[in-house]
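Suppose a classmate hands you a notebook page containing two proteins, each written out with its sequence and a corresponding row of structure tokens. How would you begin to make sense of it? This section walks through that situation. The first entry is reproduced here exactly as it would appear on such a page.
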Amino acid sequence: MELWSEVRRRVLTGELSKRQACQKYKLHWDTLKKILGHSEPPGYRKQAPREKPVLGPFVAIIHEILEADRKAPTKQRHTAKRILERLRSEHGYRGGRTVVQEEVHRWWQRSAEVFMPLAHPSGEAQVDFGSATVVYRGGERKAAVFVMSLPYSDAVFCQIFPRECTETFQEGHRRAFEFFGGVPKRITYDNTKIAVAKVIQKRGGAFTREFLRLQSHYLFEHHFCLVRRPTEKGHVESLVGYSRRNFLVPVPKLDDFEIFNEGLMEDCRRELDRQVRGKPATKAELLAEDVRAMLPLPEKPFEARRVEPCQANSLSLVRFDRNDYSVPTAHAHHAVMAVGGIERVRFVVQEQTIAEHLRDWDKENVHYDPLHYLALLERKPGALDFGKPFDDWNREHFDSVGGK
């Protein structure tokens, strides 16, 4: 650049003639013309694409393979290595690997999707579930991570649950609304089976009864992404990862999900003091604007629960969510309605609760209430010594309720 600038200055100011400049700086006449015609070096300008004598006949085949991959499962698409193997075995290609890799890379660059930046009005939210590993009561397991985000303020609410299901979906909403202090006017989801019973025309469709009950209670408007288009809710997608990296590292060790979730709420509150790049104020200040645009919280509390019809068997046990729970023996062989919440599961017959147990989020466990079997014990007193419901029951407690 220094030589370029000096030649231009001396020639164009008349200090040197063009012939003198060529002699002094040992320049070709065409080079001098280029220097005088441009204030800076224009760089290399290729007149035509470089020919590919070896790969050229196979480029169309590579493009055909990559185009067909669009309809294949994501994890079963061609790599450049696999394309090279097919070119050699099926089409007689004798060239190298690098040029194939470069052609694949060029194709992806040309065909990569471009996204439109989205405007996010205040008072709207996005919801998603992720997953994270936790050590629960000494054993490693997967937990469901519920995240609700407000794109306008960048506020985030996070909770973990034993599993992603109807009642945790509902409970996550209830807690998020109370945390933010209002109900978003519009919430964006993917096409989760918890909310969408049947997808119609790739966006939403026939909704589940429990999702409609949640919506009817809080009165928010729903918006479902196109199938396989989670980028429509990219804000919450990124915050699921952010929450996992910042709130769940190192791997949490917990004995009680509810106690741990109280700590997660505090993490979300502290997060409100942060100011995100490109935002004019802190998350807390922008959240106030979000809340002003939201719907008020309903006066009546919402019950997060899943209702399922069940049948009590001959052992007076009812199976709900992969575990068995006892009911009074008078209801053995009869239909009952199971109502599963986050902490408890109750069994109802004709709108009357006949039994209630602590909710078990594991599987294949049996939970007895010995009181449910007292009526049967009157007819079969010998069962006291061998009855499974009385294995761990304190005899003093049995005496206190009249058993002999």
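The notebook's second entry, a different protein, reads as follows.
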Amino acid sequence: GASLSRFVAPVLHTAWPVLLTVALMALFVWPWVNQQGADLRERYARRSDLSRVTPGQFQSSRDGSRVFFIERDATDGSIGRNVFILSTQPGSEAVTTARSGRLELDAANDRYLLLDTGQRNENNLVTGARTMARFQTYRVLAGERTLSAVDELPPKARSTRDLLRQPTPRHQGELVWRVGLALGAANLVLLAIGLSASNPRRAGNWNLLFALLAFIVYYNLINLTQAWVAAGKVGVGAALAGAHGGALALALALVWWREQTNRQWGWERRSGLRAAR
């Protein structure tokens, strides 16, 4: 016989640890995990072509324009012996062999392979001309500095503080998504109170199906507001107020409607009992 609105306070009191966890995960853990993933990808991308080569096996570079064969020096892991490089460019093909090679970094952090005592044979595929050059020292670009630092991180890998400091449309869209998860969790708790009320005299109960549909629609709406804000179509305040304010109003309206329905059902039940007497 208790009013449905009286369940709001105890339910929120029980659910606040979960809501706090969702907020912390969305605002802090989610960007940290994405940043670690971006760091791993950057670390792999910074590896030079030489570091990807398995000793004693032919292996191509990342872009497929070069094929390497190298033997690692048993005494010094940074030096390779019997280096073979097949380079293919539009209109030309070159084969470079050297007795040994090692890596070095220049001022721009580009990796170069220094070859010692070898030769380079180049074939022009257009004219058929062939050239051969012998060298004592030859430098080959082994890997450019690909990724950068914080400026090239995607919005999902940036901390919430960085998103607030740089309010670009994409950053605001990511911020709307993170805050929307926390607000959405609270609204779904309130919505569950209204959906959990049912009439025991009814033969069927569709509340569980409605709850599932409400979650799917609400989550897609959160993603949709993120896309709208990132595209500059909607502001941050309008997106949060429209999506989550509307969901809050719907949850409160559902609780009120359930209360009115239960009161009407209780009044009709009491009237029936008095008439039966």
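A careful reader of the second entry would note: Residues 145-150 have pLDDT under 50 and may be disordered.
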